[in-house]
Amino acid sequence: MCLAVPGKIVSIGDDEPLLRMGRVSFGGIIKQVSLAYLPEAVVGDYVIVHVGFALSILDRDEAEQTLNYVQQLETS
Question: Could you write out the DSSP letters of every residue in 17-71?
Fold first, then answer.
């Protein structure tokens, strides 16, 4: 079973569609992620990442609500 947590794109590198990479922040932890499946993704978007690939873009409100739930779990 996998748990997907939203991450926020903080920068995008190469514009070559199949090589497009971005730096994504997961609560302050930055990871390099492939954006090949999301050519429309821009800096500031929240994405769901699985095994290093961003798979979908989330609505900002939905992503922030999910992150709030995760923070509540951490403090319980």
Answer: GGG-EEEEEETTEEEEEE-TT-TT--TT-EEEEETTEEEEEEPHHHHHHHHHHHH
